[in-house]
């Protein structure tokens, strides 16, 4: 299969909010209750198809501890999209998302697309961040907000695909699709291709 | 932090556990007193659970029934003091409730569940509590440095083979004498230096690969960070990573560089064939610990070669690199470059 586009996206957020779990659920369809903590960054890739465009998503899954923030620019520098993850049961983790947005606006690609994921939605009873507040914030910064659960799989595909769509939209609007010459000629057999249907129900707000 | 239980546990009588108790270390029903002085979980000891065949004299004060033979050796090489327990217990007793410490404590607690969760010992309460005490003591001792992710895998890998206080001391020695502290400081100055050395060695020993990395914009921190910060303990399954630690205690960073070069050399053909940066990274950076079993297969020179982490460590150990040059590169990079 030919790849039309390659997008680099980065997951950011406080430690233990579920960045790795979301990426793993999305790419491998697995959920491990006992995920190891991430040092530095992991790298995952997945091929998807949105409308008629086949896209390879290069996902950089970063470490959450504050000390590793110094290394983060290496990973978000050329990223076209960012998945900002917070844990709905942890207020602090939401404020971390806010601070990441500030940093990305200053430091990252000016066309970077944001999607905010409120993860661990299976723990609705322990929710500390009102959904409305998160959605309002997302709206304010022009991002999409998704309620996700890496455990149940809810909203996971949707949030990653939304990033791909946002990047595609931005490209078509600016009229300069970034067509990677390397990507065009490459044949991918490694990952299973997924055809993305039009917006699925649930997940997005 | 509730330091009280530690104090109580610290003062229990130093009863020497019977050999059969040693084998059942994961059983939670053991008296609390023993939980504090837990036993190594590894399979390095002889069938009686004793570490009796150690070459040093019977009176060696380091010899603890709580450590396996390998760990005992590490203690000697690293220079763990004979009264290793005193400072450790003292630190556990010291209450600390500064904001900074509590932040680190939060992070430690967060990571306890995420350190070798697949290993029964570390998914048990006993194991987690032990690891927590060690990490807390290390953090208290180095409060300025604090706790940084990566330390958890190192401490757990040591704790798997030895007693808490000896793990604590080996962590201190690794941080100071082996300069791991530099790796964990803000902006990771040590890591950057090691990356610099690896880049230099790569250029000399594997020039084609070095050039390929440059063209593909692969910088060494991309793959070296995890390896460097955890000394491969996060990546290589716990049951095998003792070989890496043992050689690191003996040869220091020289061994680390040799192992990195060995891995890169054995992957060279695959890496040169990889056409994109992402392909290179997916070869060199397996994602999950389980993937590292597959990774060893990639390192085989031929399909028939029998390869294990133990063997790889041995090959790396006997490899040669110019340590004089390396230490000069670490200390005075500019003058070293001029000279060579």
TrEMBL record, chain A:
GO-annotated molecular function: GTP binding; GTPase activity
- Keywords for this protein: Nucleotide-binding
Going by the entry's taxonomy, the superkingdom of the source organism is recorded as Eukaryota
Q: Which PROSITE patterns match?
A: ARF (PS51417), RAB (PS51419), RAS (PS51421), RHO (PS51420)
For the keyword Nucleotide-binding, the answer is yes
In terms of NCBIfam families, this protein maps to:
small_GTP
Name of the protein: Ras-related protein Rab-21
Which organism's genome codes for this protein? Blepharisma stoltei
TrEMBL record, chain B:
**What's the domain of life for this entry?**
Eukaryota
Q: Which GO terms describe its molecular function?
A: GTPase activator activity; small GTPase binding
Give the matching PROSITE patterns. TBC_RABGAP
Name it.
Answer: Rab-GAP TBC domain-containing protein
For the Rab-GAP TBC domain, which residue ranges apply?
Answer: 91-252
**PANTHER family xref list:** GTPASE ACTIVATING PROTEIN AND CENTROSOME-ASSOCIATED, ISOFORM B (PTHR47219:SF9), RAB GTPASE-ACTIVATING PROTEIN 1-LIKE (PTHR47219)
Q: Which InterPro entries match?
A: Rab-GAP-TBC_dom, Rab-GAP_TBC_sf, Rab_GAP_TBC_domain
Tell me, what's a Pfam family for it?
Answer: RabGAP-TBC
Q: Which organism is it from?
A: Blepharisma stoltei
């Amino acid at each position: 299969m030919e790849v039309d586009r390659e997008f680099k996206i980065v997951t950011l957020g406080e430690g233990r909010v579920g960045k790795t779990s979301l990426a793993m659920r999305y790419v491998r369809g697995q959920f491990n209750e006992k995920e190891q903590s991430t040092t530095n960054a992991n790298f995952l890739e997945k091929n998807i198809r949105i409308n008629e465009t086949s896209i390879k998503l290069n996902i950089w899954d970063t470490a959450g501890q504050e000390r590793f923030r110094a290394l983060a620019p290496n990973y978000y520098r050329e990223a076209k999209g960012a998945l900002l993850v917070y844990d709905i049961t942890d207020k602090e983790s939401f404020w971390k998302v806010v601070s990441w947005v500030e940093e990305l606006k200053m430091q990252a690609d000016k066309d970077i697309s944001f999607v905010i994921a409120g993860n661990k939605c299976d723990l609705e009873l322990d929710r500390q961040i009102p959904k409305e507040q998160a959605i309002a914030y997302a709206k304010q910064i022009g991002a999409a907000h998704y309620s996700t659960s890496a455990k149940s799989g809810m909203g996971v595909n949707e949030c990653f695909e939304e990033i791909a769509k946002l990047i595609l939209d931005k490209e078509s609007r600016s009229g300069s699709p970034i067509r990677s010459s390397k990507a065009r000629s490459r044949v991918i057999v490694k990952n299973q291709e997924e055809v993305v249907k039009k917006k699925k129900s649930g997940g997005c707000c | 932090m509730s330091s009280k239980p530690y104090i109580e546990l610290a003062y229990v009588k130093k009863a020497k556990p019977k050999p059969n108790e040693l084998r059942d270390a994961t059983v939670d029903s053991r008296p609390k007193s023993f939980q504090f002085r837990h036993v190594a979980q590894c399979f390095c000891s002889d069938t009686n659970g004793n570490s009796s065949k150690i070459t040093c004299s019977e009176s060696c004060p380091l010899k603890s029934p709580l450590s396996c033979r390998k760990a005992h050796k590490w203690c000697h090489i690293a220079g763990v003091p004979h009264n290793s327990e005193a400072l450790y217990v003292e630190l556990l007793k010291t209450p600390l409730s500064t904001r900074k410490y509590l932040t680190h404590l939060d992070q430690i607690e967060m990571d306890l569940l995420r350190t070798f969760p697949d290993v029964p010992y570390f998914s048990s309460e006993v194991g987690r509590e032990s690891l927590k005490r060690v990490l807390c003591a290390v953090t208290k001792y180095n409060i300025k440095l604090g706790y940084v992710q990566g330390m958890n895998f190192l401490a757990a890998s040591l704790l798997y083979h030895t007693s808490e206080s000896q793990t604590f001391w080996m962590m201190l020695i690794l941080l100071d004498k082996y300069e791991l502290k530099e790796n964990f400081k803000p902006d990771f100055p040590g890591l950057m230096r090691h990356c610099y050395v690896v880049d230099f060695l790569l250029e000399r020993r594997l020039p084609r690969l070095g050039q390929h990395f440059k063209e593909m914009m692969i910088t060494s921190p991309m793959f070296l960070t995890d390896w460097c910060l955890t000394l491969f303990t996060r990546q290589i399954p716990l049951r095998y990573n003792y070989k890496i630690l043992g050689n690191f205690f003996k040869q220091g960073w020289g061994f680390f560089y040799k192992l990195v070069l060995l891995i890169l050399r054995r992957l060279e053909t695959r890496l040169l064939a990889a056409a994109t940066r992402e392909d290179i990274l997916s070869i060199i950076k397996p994602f999950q610990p389980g993937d590292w079993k597959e990774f060893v297969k990639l390192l085989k020179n031929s399909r028939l070669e029998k390869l294990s982490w133990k063997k790889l460590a041995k090959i790396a150990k006997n490899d040669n690199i110019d340590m004089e040059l390396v230490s000069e590169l670490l200390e005075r990079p500019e003058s070293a470059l001029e000279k060579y």
